[in-house]
From TrEMBL:
GO terms for cellular component: cytosol. The lineage of its organism: Bacteria, Pseudomonadati, Bacteroidota, Sphingobacteriia, Sphingobacteriales. HAMAP family: DapA (MF_00418). Pyruvate binds at T47, I206. It comes from Pedobacter nyackensis. It comes from the Bacteria. This is 4-hydroxy-tetrahydrodipicolinate synthase. The gene is dapA. Transmembrane segments: none annotated. Its EC number is 4.3.3.7. Its main location: cytoplasm. The record marks T46, Y109 as: Part of a proton relay during catalysis.
Amino acid sequence: MNKFHGTGVALVTPFNADGTVDYDGLRKLINHLIEGEVEYLVSLGTTGEASTLNKEEKKKIWEFTAEVNNGRLPLVAGIGGNDTAEVVNSIKTFDVDGYDAILSASPYYNKPTQEGIYQHYKAISENSSLPIFIYNVPGRTASNISPETTCRLATDFKNIIGTKEASGSFDQFNQIMRDKPSDFLLISGDDPIAMPMISIGAVGVISVIGNALPKQLSDLIRLSLKGEFATALPKHLSLIEFTRMMFAEGNPAGVKAALKHLGVCDDHVRLPLVKVSEELRKAIIAETNTISS
């Protein structure tokens, strides 16, 4: 099986009460996920609050994650932004030791045209020594990567090996599956639709909820990839309410509340994010207990 088939988890970045990075918590999280039998890890994606980390912090987190992982699972680094030249420079200077690929979100805020998005990823492709995953998340970037642009990139650049699709559009997923090269990977960027996406050919998920429930989610994804949807469906349905809670007051505040309850790491986030409300925290604890029992 391809190393990126199955469950990837977009790691949260644990923080101490004073806002510094909690490396002990990060170590516990990485081991928690490996013990939960996920297939690969993604360091400093959106869930990792990368936008609030400076260059030195990112560098140290990437190095620490590779050290703790110690080759046990494939590692993906999240390197994106809305300044193409800066993203290219970050990729060219990135220490690839211990890493297997780069996940790069489409430029946010600028709202580039499809040609601008194509040229952005072209520049990344031409300057990366690692394979690249496109990340389409229009709810955050305010622009969508069209299926035509995705498949054009997949065809033109062999080191662009897949896309994390978080558009929520099955019309878009269908077009990508129909028109992409056979070896190009479609990966769900949304936990609640991972199973139905797999039914049309997606190869797995890059997950948020997997931080807290790696075993439950990875079991569901493996069953789905085997085509055992009747067995997978009850597992899928059992996670719906938990998943809804994870995003009710923003990501990663929800999943950090669950991780604190599980004793993996604390629930501190960096402004402008804040912790979940007390009411939601209690609901998350109750639902976590129900699923984990």
